[in-house]
């Protein structure tokens, strides 16, 4: 809204300057310069604010997106129901590939990941905890299993080193 008023004021000042006689040209030029400088400062501040807002929001990744965190590249390759546990719960499986782009061996475990539904209810890991050790320059495939009832979508949160990564995954419908 502030930009609208600032732009309107600038337009009005320019229109008045164009309509006045030429003898007051130097005064008008100084006014236009001051108005343009104020507009540029406002644009710079707005750009900085939008950049900080963007960095505050974590980027959401989808199935198939390559995500790089430190020396590791992760890709969730597939998700879906792998097993019916009981009348209401199913085992939801997330398959991924992990590539170590670094010079040293890297370890990841299922404890580095958390699955929640869109209301932030954490899902219980299913089965034994998994752990992957990936040598430098190598790629490994792994899967995570969670117990869940029907839900529209999931959020998979991963903590890789000091970075947090978030994926938005499809849910389980009652017909799965």
Automatic annotation (TrEMBL):
Domain DUF4352, residue spans: 62-148
InterPro entries documented for this protein: DUF4352 (IPR029051), Immunoprotect_excell_Ig-like (IPR029050)
Source taxon at top rank: Bacteria
Acidic residues compositional bias, start-end: 22-57
Matches recorded under Pfam families: DUF4352
Signal peptide: 1-20
UniProt keyword annotations, A-Z: Signal
Annotated TM spans: none
Region (Disordered): 19-60
Protein name, UniProt field: DUF4352 domain-containing protein
